[in-house]
């Protein structure tokens, strides 16, 4: 039997959530299919596969970049969040990007930026929140630290993300990504210069691994050092795969922090 290293376990989110991501992926997909049926006829496409639902012309916009370790899931599989967002009065956009091994990480970052530029053209939006989960949190952070933001981002929400990719080079996660240490560092938002970062919520699940929690703490500290207003929070009784549901629930701490008006937040 192969020996699984501590590092491999730390960067395997399902190690704290039943041992397999498959049931949670299936749940995302089933709920997304139901949401797509519910919104049939009102879902707009944008930027090579993105999905947009808007309840009205003046609604704020929640943009979501999905996880899947850059090698699974899609915008279509992210529609399960749309009903909650719309119920809270938000338009909801799920970003599509080319997952590995078909797409490189640099390509994914570029595609997410292009998607945001397309959404900017669909506006004007009175408020924009950019949120990412897991690998999507990494991509959202990379887009937000780019020199020219493709859309005005009022708040950045980073959920259970990986922001320093160097540890992943030594895990099986890297097999479809093909990163060496230099490339991993160049694509790590926690190591890049930060400038003009919007108010940010950095969140993780109580049952995330210690390494995922540490990644969030390090990114939050870097953002504060760059002058951003940062809210850090832990979602209790949640794990890596179900914390994302809290994003569109204004009655829980993550949803309240993510969807509140821009001036309600503060450092914590």
Which short descriptors sum up this protein?
single chain; 268 residues; alpha/beta; Rossmann fold; 8 strands; 32% helix; 15% strand; disordered C terminus
Topology record:
Blueprint: H1 6-10, H2 22-38, E1 44-46, E2 50-53, E3 61-65, H3 82-87, E4 91-95, H4 105-122, E5 128-133, H5 135-144, E6 155-159, H6 181-186, E7 199-205, H7 210-225, E8 230-235, H8 253-259
Parallel strand pairs: 3-4, 3-5, 5-6, 6-7, 7-8
Antiparallel strand pairs: 1-2, 2-4
Helix pairs in contact: 4-5
Q: In words, what does this structure look like?
A:
This protein has 268 residues and is of the alpha/beta class. It has one domain (48-259): Alpha/Beta hydrolase fold, catalytic domain (Rossmann fold). The chain contains 8 helices and 8 strands; from the N terminus they run ααβββαβαβαβαβαβα. The chain has helices at residues 6-10, 22-38, 82-87, 105-122, 135-144, 181-186, 210-225, 253-259, and strands at residues 44-46, 50-53, 61-65, 91-95, 128-133, 155-159, 199-205, 230-235. β7 (199-205), α7 (210-225) and β8 form a beta-alpha-beta unit. α4 crosses α5. It is globular and about 50 Å long. The relative contact order is 0.15.
Q: How many DSSP E strands?
A: 8
Radius of gyration: 17 Å
Structural class: alpha/beta
Task: Classify the helix fraction into a percent range.
Answer: 25-40%
Instruction: Write down the domain tally.
Output: 1
Strand fraction = 15-25%
How many angstroms separate the termini?
Answer: 45 Å
CATH H level: which superfamily? Answer: Alpha/Beta hydrolase fold, catalytic domain
In the CATH classification, which architecture applies? 3-Layer(aba) Sandwich
> What fold name goes in the CATH topology slot?
Rossmann fold
What are the secondary-structure elements, in order, as H or E?
A: HHEEEHEHEHEHEHEH
């Amino acid at each position: 039997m192969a020996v699984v290293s501590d590092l491999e376990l730390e960067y395997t989110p399902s190690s704290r959530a039943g041992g397999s991501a498959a049931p949670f992926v299936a749940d995302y997909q089933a709920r997304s299919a139901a949401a797509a049926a519910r919104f049939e006829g009102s879902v707009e496409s944008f930027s090579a596969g993105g999905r947009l639902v808007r309840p009205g012309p003046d609604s704020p916009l929640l943009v979501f970049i999905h996880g899947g370790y850059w090698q699974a899931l899609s915008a279509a599989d992210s529609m399960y969040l749309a009903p909650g967002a719309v119920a809270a009065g938000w338009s909801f956009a799920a970003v599509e990007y080319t997952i590995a091994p078909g797409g490189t990480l640099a390509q994914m970052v570029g595609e997410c930026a292009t998607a945001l530029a397309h959404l900017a053209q669909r506006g004007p939006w009175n408020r924009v929140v950019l949120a990412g989960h897991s690998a999507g949190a990494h991509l959202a952070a990379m887009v937000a630290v780019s020199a020219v933001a493709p859309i005005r981002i009022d708040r950045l929400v980073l959920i259970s993300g990986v922001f320093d990719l160097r540890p992943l080079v030594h895990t099986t996660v890297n097999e479809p990504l093909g990163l060496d240490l230099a490339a991993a560092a160049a694509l790590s938002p926690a190591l890049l210069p930060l400038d003009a970062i919007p108010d940010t919520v950095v969140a993780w699940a109580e049952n995330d691994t210690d390494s995922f929690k540490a990644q969030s703490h390090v990114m939050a500290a870097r953002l504060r050092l760059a002058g951003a207003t940062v809210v850090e929070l832990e979602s209790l009784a949640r794990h890596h795969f179900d914390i994302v549901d809290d994003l569109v629930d204004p009655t829980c701490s993550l949803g309240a922090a993510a969807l509140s008006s821009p001036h309600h937040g503060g450092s914590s």
